[in-house]
Amino acid sequence: MITSANKRDSIVKSALVLFAERGYDATTIPMIAASAGVGAGTIYRYFENKEVLGNKIFQEYLNIFTETVKNGFPHDDSIRTQFHHIFKTMVHFTTEQDQALYFIKLHSGAHFLNEDSHASFQGLLNIFKNFFDSGKEKKEIKELPSSALIAIIYGAFLELERLVRIGELEPDPKLLADVEGSFWDAVRVHV
Questions:
Q1: Sign of the C-alpha dihedral, residues 161, 164, 168, 174?
Q2: Averaged over 68-78, what is the pLDDT?
Q3: How far apart are CA 68 and CA 91, in angstroms?
Q4: What is the rounded distance in angstroms from the CA atom of residue 140 to the CA atom of residue 128?
Q5: What is the mean pLDDT of residues 77-82?
Q6: Which pLDDT belongs to residue 98?
Q7: Residue 94: how many CB atoms within 10 A of its CB?
Q8: Which candidate, 109, 2, 11, 26, places its Cα nearest to that of 57?
Q9: Of 15, 142, 156, 163, which residue is most buried, by most CB within 10 angstroms?
Q10: What is the reported pTM?
Q11: Which domains are present in the chain?
Q12: C-alpha–C-alpha distance, residues 144 and 150, integer Å
């Protein structure tokens, strides 16, 4: 027998995959129900509507992503060590939650997101912004707006993740180390 928690989890996981693959607007509640193995009415027992479901998924996985980056953050270590931590945790999150990162990428500016979802996304961006601001204060990160630095790293990482998803790249340790070095070179001050 499927428990309530299992039904909810199945709905969330099915919706996440469909939203990531098809997009929020092209995904219907009946599609989610069929994928989750539940009736459409069951979804409405857990989520008022598709918008609520989309926001819950967005916030839930953004919070996992944010906590992954924050967990064990080496505040007292060098900027380079902090950068390594950020890169390593982004790779870890992607390995564990590949559909979630793609969903976040596709929908971070979506029309259905509510204020709490926007605040969750801003919380993640603030971690990156604070890191870059600290690095600029220490003259180790280029004097570019933090939003530009975030775009360089986060944007490039999202593209890397896309290439892995479609099978064009295999994320072996050497490739990841080389990519991390390239990302670091893109934002650090060269003396």
A1: positive
A2: 96
A3: 10
A4: 15
A5: 98
A6: 81
A7: 21
A8: 11
A9: 15
A10: 0.90
A11: 1-47 (1.10.10.60), 53-187 (1.10.357.10)
A12: 10
